Amino acid sequence: MYPEATPVLVEQARSDRAAFGELYDLYVRRIYAFCLSRTKDKDEAEEVTAQTFERALNAIGRYEHRGAPFSSWLLRIAANLIVDRGRRQVRVVLLGDDPVPEQHVERSEEDDPQLWVERWERALWLRAQVASLPSTQKQAVRLRYWEGLSVAEVADRMGRNENATKQLLHRAVTNLRVRAGGADV
User: Fold this and answer.
1) Cα gap 35→106, rounded to integer Å
2) Which of 2, 52, 109, 136 is deepest in the core (most CB within 10 A)?
């Protein structure tokens, strides 16, 4: 998991630009990744990320800690900017006497920035854990789960038989479960 800013650093950032710079350094990758996942465009994600930190700098004096991590506040700013950009880009032009369609936008759990960050951090933690596996286990996991190869294809690529490959994958997943404290990986 990624570290969160301490309340002391956030408080200091209200009046100290260098402290705000530390917040920027701590969160810029997360905010950019969030923006890129929503916009699917590198340039737009960079622009929204920059606007997020600009708004945060201007509003940090009004920030209130309400039990959620500081990243939640930044992600909410980014999410609002993305929604605003979407509203500006989509204009409906009606021709004729048809009534204006209802503006009904269904929100899903995927729209929750906090949930998105938690999933992203879990994925990064899992990647770090996989990277620390023994090399043959790491290779088997990458081929099977990231590249989506069948067990037979993994066995062929690794020059092993299928049963040995299944056992290797089982050991890798068991290692990951132990590291996760027995939770489902």
Assistant:
1) 20
2) 52
